[in-house]
Amino acid sequence: MTFISSRVLEALRSHSSAQWACLLVLSIAFAAALEALHVSAALLIGPMIGGVIVASSGGRIRVPDTIFAATQGIIACMIARAMPASIVDEVAMQWPVFGLGVMSTIVMAAVVGWLLARWQVLPGTSAIWGSAPGGAASMTVLAEAYGADVRLVAFMQYLRVMCVTSVASLVASAAGQQHPAAAIVWFPAVDWLSFAGTLAVASLGVISAKVFRIRAGAVLLPLIVGVVLSNTGAMHIELPPWFLAVSYALLGWSIGLRFTRESVAHCARALPRVLAAILLLIAACAAVGQLLAKAAGVDPLTAYLATTPGGLDVAAIIASDSDVDVPFVLSMQFVRILIVLMTGPALARFLAGRSAEQSKAA
Questions:
Q1: Taken in order 301, 109, 95, 226, is the CA torsion positive or negative?
Q2: What's the whole-number mean pLDDT along residues 59-69?
Q3: What are the φ and ψ backbone dihedral angles of 61, each rounded to 5 degrees?
Q4: CA-CA distance, 10 to 2, in Å (whole number)?
């Protein structure tokens, strides 16, 4: 049996078509299982797990860098679509509350990241980017652009997504404020002109990354252009569910296929401490949320979702299925992701430098 299994593995390693077939089957299986458990980002996490299994088993297939950059631009357009102009009015009315909620979450996440880097749980800036409380997809691709180990950042970010989603869903259910999730229409009617415009905006990221060598341009340029065009009425961002599902899968494969047996073993060793750090961060943000509920006069679940460190996409999904103040939640999450995008690189370098200096001094 051992001889047969080794021959099968060797055959798989030598045939890229067989590796792609295994990857596709594993991705569908894991995505379906996570969807059944109502895990957010299941369509990204499932393919990523499939990629990890194929790569750590000796697979040599890879997603081309150009396609990886294109998926980053699509993710940026998805974020831009969730940022209405009304957010500005929401923030202006209660800016002290937003300042307290946003900065406290960023500071707590930075402290957790610094501690993980200081204790060498994850190397370099990976722990700091992994702790950053922006959207998991955007933080992962930004970390890649600024030289962090994208595998370890993705490991921490998506582990946090699963933890935050589970805790937030439990809290919403316990509060009696959660509705049944609406069924997804995978193949709706498509505005093909708007879809072409959206693809053109997303392609700006590929162009900037390839031609102008703009760091994080694959995310930042489509995000900025998408927000401006969609909020001025110049363009409607059209992203059909089936297209987003394919984009999520490609992004998940791009990350998962980079893993090796050594990096998987490192993640396994770091899992208990990373999980403890994530749960500590969730609890600290929940405490801030309850202070925020009193200061802003919103209900506790609204405040909790506004401060939860799972990212804009996770908070938006759970908020839309619950009896909460959705504009407040999205406004808080948007302001936070905007600040993290602007300050993340400098903060990551500063904290990594401080951690390295203290490690040498010790």
A1: negative
A2: 85
A3: -75, 150
A4: 12
